[in-house]
Design a protein that fits this description.
Belongs to the class IV-like SAM-binding methyltransferase superfamily. RNA methyltransferase TrmH family. By secondary structure, this protein is an alpha/beta fold. It has ten helices and 14 strands. Strand 1 and strand 2 form a beta hairpin.
Length: 285
Amino acid sequence: MTNAPQHSRELTITSAANPRLKALLGLRRRRTREETGQTLVEGYEEIGLALSAGVRPGTVYVCEELFSPAGRAGSQDIGHQDDLLARLRDDRVEVVHLSRSAFEKVSYREGPDGLIAVVDRIGVSLADLRVDGPDHLTLLSQGVEKPGNLGAMLRTADAAGVDAVVAADPVTDWGNPNVVRASKGTVFAVPAASATTAEALEWIRANDIRLVVTTPETDLLHTDVDYTGRVAIAVGSEKHGADRTLLDAATHRVRIPMRGKANSLNVAASAAIVLYEAVRQRDDR
């Protein structure tokens, strides 16, 4: 480990066996994230969204060899990593330079763009979720296993203007790097909490929120329900859907029409369809 020539107080790591890199790899494990209270955020867009949400990384690891001088990756505008790095320096974030081989060892995505940040744990408690105004909209996911689905639902929630996302009995955590990646950083933009199903239902009741649960066990179409007012839209796990506790607590159970041979949709797709029905109704008022 030596000093980086371009910034004398910034470290450079070239060995993939360096202890700091081993610590980074450890943050891929949920237990380590819970013990340290930290997680990883990789990528220009994701780190930029975190900064915009008021998150201050403890350390950022960079490989300028992977930066795109044009701010593009193929046809995609990815922004200028140098500008983001300057912003991090201005905020006095520790910067550690990595060789390409060292960076590729700790990167968890295909086509890395040379930026990985270590940030504090993501997510808030149910008690910290604000339920303001008459039109609060929550997305509730129960028992969702795949980080990619949780991340995709966060992206949809952000786009739809959802006020909060609650993971009930989650199999993974909000700080899972693949949740952060799949969310494109919107995990920092939407208030997100984890809880048991019982805790989530008590929070819904205490805040006078109507609960709409998606399930094939109903004749009521998702378009035939009023989504104005305080509403929580709930989806169940990939394998089993919503459990009996959630279904019994529902104000309405709704189904999405299926015209093909498959009898179910991807859970993130189901959430998006019903959320945007709520958006349509609210916009039409």
